[in-house]
Amino acid sequence: MERTVYGIASVETIGLLIFSIHNMPQPIPNYFRYFTPSAERLTWGVAITAAGFTRIAAHTAYPPPHPSDHAFSWERGRVLEALQVVLVTAGRGQLELRGAKPQRIEAGAAFIVLPKIWHRYRPDPATGWTESWLEAQGPIVDNLLAKGVFSVQSVVRPGAVAAGLDGALASVHSIAREAGPGFDPELASRTFGVLAAWARAGEAQTEPTHVRRAVLAAERRLAEHYAEPVNIEALARELGVAYSHFRRAFLSHTGFSPWKYVVHLRLTQARRLLAASDSTLDDLAARLGFSSGFHLSSAFKQAYGVSPDRWRRKMQAGTGSAAPLS
After folding, report:
1. Residue 50: which of 250, 219, 187, 199 has the closest Cα?
2. Would you say the pTM of this structure is higher than 0.90?
């Protein structure tokens, strides 16, 4: 029972209340920052070039004043050199991107602006919106664009908040607001977290929840028991998913069909064991689930373009791997 003194909460209670208020997450203040593109993005793979968080009230001008190279109006639109990821956490609005149909943006959705493509977006004047965003450049971004992770065919992700994009962007803002003008490796790493959250939102959008759960469970199961005999169709049935749906979703999530994923895990472990031991191929095959040393050697050479013996000799001679560890 709470102790009181003449109807006033105790000192301990007041102290706890003050401590709780002090430690509550503080709302992100409005800000935007622009960073000069740095050559270090080529070394680290990604760099942030701009970030911001803004609450746009209803019936106010949009956008707020920006630097000249980022200024735009709805009438003219604009083109950027960097990839931009924008999350709308309140309100609603619209987006137009050349090559894609106009999109209505609702609270909780994120959208992308692709480099060197004309675009325009704005909040609905009746609601305004709250936008959380960043821009990024670098080889990692270029590779994701080339692989279609960011594409004009999928510019809006309704499930972005559930995929963790809100938290990933907040993590960026916590540094970007106070960061110096130069390259910051920590900021780069958090930028990559935003890109990963976008990818997760895409997976959530393409597959039903029960299929995604089955794929994640299967991936864990196979990773823990890759050396054991496995029946992929039986595993799909056990997880309550039709095999055709399971196989398609697994391939989308991992880049491998389920069986090729098992082989990939076995060969990855084979490379480690070849480099660290003198075990024969037959011994390794027995440990890793291959039917024979010949089968292991054949799969290894097909995957990496070099025999296990030759790869081992190069590694043990200290001349490096003849093929990248994938």
Report:
1. 187
2. no
